[in-house]
Amino acid sequence: MEKENLDLKTAIQIAKIVSTVPEDRMPIIWDIFSKAGLDIGGLDEMAEWKALTKQAFLIDTAQFLTEITKGRETVNGEYRIPVEEFNTFCSRQKLNARCTRKYLAGIEAIRTAKLLSGKVEYTPAVAVPGTSNSTYRCVCIYSDWQERIKDKVTQ
Question: What angle do CA 148, 154, 155 make, to 5 degrees?
């Protein structure tokens, strides 16, 4: 179906629908819009931000960071947690690892890297100790995370 430009009134009506529909019914609404030929961008981002917001309430940030860094050595001012280890730790806490990384990046507790495409990388590659060109991906938690998050979380 050919894309049409929406007038402002229609766009406002769609926004009202999207903002008031219960989350569990959103897939039905998106399906209806899709079948009507309306490609409403931002669905993935909206779902991710909703999940991220919920994730922030599920996590006691200080306790989480204390537990995951416990007994670890710092390297260049950060704790380097291999991705699989971080994911397993989150899973045991019943947390979505991706949302947790995004949340921790948002409060500047972890180091991120910006890719050329503009996307944010939450698991930067770090050098394998003792090698010149081998790397592995990890979640890099700043060793001064307590100071960094002090005014950003309420837990």
Answer: 95
HEC profile of 16-34: HHHHHCCHHHHHHHHHHHH
For residue 146, give both structure tokens. 């307590």
Q: What is the count of structural domains for the chain?
A: 2
Statement: the pTM of the whole predicted model exceeds 0.85? no
Q: Answer positive or negative: Cα dihedral of 32, 35, 41, 45.
A: positive
Are 76 and 142 found together in one domain? yes
**One-letter amino acid identity for 32?**
I
Report the percent of the chain where pLDDT is more than 70: 79
What tens digit of pLDDT does each residue of 30-56 get?
A: 777 777 777 666 655 665 555 555 555
- 45 & 71 share domain: no
> What gap in Å lies between CA 87 and CA 91, rounded to an integer?
6
Residues 70 and 137 in one domain: yes
- Which residues of the chain fall below pLDDT 70? 1-6, 23-24, 39-58, 154-155
Tokens of 136: 């592995």
Q: 27 is in which domain, residue-wise?
A: 8-55
